Amino acid sequence: MTAIRPAGRQRRIRLRIDGGVVRGCAGGVPDTISLDIEDPVAVLTLRRPEVLNAFTHQMLAEVESAIAQAMTDRRVVGVVITGEGRGFCSGLDAQALAATTDGGSSGRPDDDNELVGLFSYLLEQPKPIIAAVNGVAAGGGFVLASKCDLRIASTDAAFTTIFTKRGLIAEHGMTWLLPRQVGVGAALDLLWSSRKIDAEEAFRIGLVQRVVEPDQLLDTACGYVRDLANEVSPWALEQTKRLVYRHVGMAAPDAFREADEVTWAALDRADASEGVAALVERRPPKFDRVGDEDR
User: Beta strands of the chain (E only): which ranges?
Assistant: First the structure.
């Protein structure tokens, strides 16, 4: 099962602009995502509500292409990922799952030095990515939510790893990531039992950072990004995210040394001068955005 990878590795997915909303399309296949960019937020919506937004390989490629577009767009400070309808994402589509299982380990791709596992590329993106979990997040949907930087859940949300009920282990790096998010005991409970937990329990164990009413979910997630855009440096966000994920598995002396080097380098950037000037002048800061000119 670790062989599942976005089809976007093999071919480029076109994204068309349709009335201000970017929609995925390829070869006449119905749209399965949309990317709505309204400075400073990009909202990526999974759009297969009839199957609780279950992924196809086509959809995985569209998601990756949309994320890449948001990362290069200087209007975008952060991305919010959510699902259309009553589900966030129920994981891999049943037909795609059956095909992958039937293929066995023969479908495993060659090692190409990429960070392996579904949605692992999200950890390497320079901008904050927030899951706005509106309903069930199961299997691959659980992986997607977990690999976002923060999770904001509605009271309708539910989470289940599901892997062991399919005869599989915790895939896509979840044995590394989940214990770091919720602790070893809670991670083993979720991964062993595959039981479903509600938003309140997810919040209690630390998987979710906020729980809100369903009609407040998108406003809360987008509002968080707007607050970041108004108050903090996008470059500082990028460096902080990079260092947090690197330092999780690094010895303390090495992590402290690297953080110190980045701190001193930050003093030579215009953002540091702007931050101090905004404080002295008692005004909001005007930091440079991160985008295609910086990549």
Answer: 14-18, 21-25, 33-38, 41-46, 78-83, 87-89, 129-133, 136-138, 150-154, 158-160, 197-198, 210-212
User: Is 233-294 a domain of CATH 1.25.40.10?
Assistant: no
Q: What is the number of other CB atoms lying within 10 angstroms of the CB of residue 19?
A: 6
Give residue limits of the domains in the chain.
7-229, 233-294
pLDDT for the residue 223: 98
Per-residue pLDDT tens digits for 59-112: 999 999 999 999 999 999 999 999 999 999 999 886 665 555 555 555 555 555
pTM across the whole model: 0.86
Nearest-CA neighbor of 190 among 209, 205, 200, 203?
205
End-to-end CA distance of the chain: 33
CATH topology of domain 7-229: 2-enoyl-CoA Hydratase; Chain A, domain 1 (3.90.226)
Asked if the peptide bond before residue 40 counts as cis, ω within 30 degrees of 0, the response is: yes
Query: One-letter amino acid identity for 81?
Result: I
Beta carbons within 8 Å of 74's beta carbon, 6+ residues apart: 289, 290, 291, 292, 293
Amino acid code (one letter) for 104: G
At 154, phi and psi to the nearest 5?
-80, 165
**Which pLDDT belongs to residue 97?**
59
Q: Residue 100 in contact with residue 1, Cβ under 8 Å?
A: yes
CA–CA distance, 199 with 157 (Å, rounded to integer): 5
